[in-house]
């Protein structure tokens, strides 16, 4: 499903955000990407959804070489990838419901079909009562849950989560990780970038640890 071959990403001359990184992640696998701030976690995720190209090496997504992806093909790639951004990237002047609905509009679903997908997810993430609230009026934790709902709503084959529990209280953080692991069990590939050691220990899975852009550990931890 996801295959990195000797991938290097260089910024500002000799500085390498990733340095000769290789790994494979299979369909339906749940994987933590961990490491200190600046280790290369977010850069790795950006490569997967084609927000960045490698300086050298090869990135394959479902056997498609992203080194040669065209600008016009990127939106089609991203239809199959749900991204939970660390800074949310929500439309602040839209309601919770509208933010999630936008992610469905490319599929031209009827209004009722959209509701049947959105409402259960809002309940699951405990933000149903906020569905008509403008996003800029939400707390950080509420925004995080909206971002999670938007990423999951299309049932993508790949889900990338950049510090998805960073703004959540411990109880909701655990609910989120359980939800993501359940989604992986149902066949989606889930990659969670996090430095939260407690969550990694409580909900074990494969861990790929980065340090200074290099893989220092790739361990099945269950």
TL;DR of this structure?
The protein is α/β, with parallel strands linked by helices and 222 residues long. It has 7 helices and 10 strands.
Uncertain ranges: none
> What structural class do helix, strand and pairing data support?
alpha/beta
Order of helices and strands: EEEHEEHEHHHEHEHEE
Count of helical stretches? 7
Strand content: 25-35%
The coarse overall form would be globular
Main sheet attributes: strand count, strand direction, barrel closure: 6 strands, mixed
What number is the mean pLDDT? 94
Describe it.
Helix content is 31%, strand content 27%. It has 222 residues and is of the alpha/beta class. The strands form 2 sheets. It has a 6-stranded mixed β-sheet with strand order 6-7-8-3-9-10. Strands 2-1-4-5 form a 4-stranded antiparallel β-sheet, with helices on one face. Strand 4 and strand 5 (64-65) form a beta hairpin. The longest helix has 16 residues, at 170-185.
């Amino acid at each position: 499903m996801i295959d990195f071959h000797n991938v290097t990403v260089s910024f500002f001359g000799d500085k390498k955000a990733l340095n000769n990184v290789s790994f494979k992640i299979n369909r339906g696998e749940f994987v933590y990407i961990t490491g200190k701030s600046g280790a290369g976690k977010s850069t790795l995720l950006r490569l997967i959804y084609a927000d960045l190209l490698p300086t050298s090496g090869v990135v394959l997504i479902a056997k498609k070489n992203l080194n040669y992806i065209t600008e016009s093909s990127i939106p089609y790639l991203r239809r199959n990838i749900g991204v939970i951004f660390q800074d949310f990237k929500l439309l602040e002047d839209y309601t919770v419901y509208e933010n999630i609905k936008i992610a469905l509009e490319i599929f031209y679903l009827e209004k009722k079909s959209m509701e049947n997908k959105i409402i259960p997810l809002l309940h699951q993430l405990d933000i149903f009562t906020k569905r008509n609230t403008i996003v800029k009026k939400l707390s950080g934790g509420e925004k995080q849950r909206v971002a999670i709902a938007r990423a999951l709503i299309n049932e993508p084959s790949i889900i990338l989560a950049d510090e998805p529990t960073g703004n959540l209280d411990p109880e909701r953080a655990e609910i989120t990780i359980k939800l993501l692991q359940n989604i992986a069990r149902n066949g989606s590939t889930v990659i969670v970038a996090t430095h939260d050691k407690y969550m990694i220990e409580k909900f074990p899975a494969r861990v790929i640890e980065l340090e200074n852009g290099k893989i220092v550990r790739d361990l099945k931890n269950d």
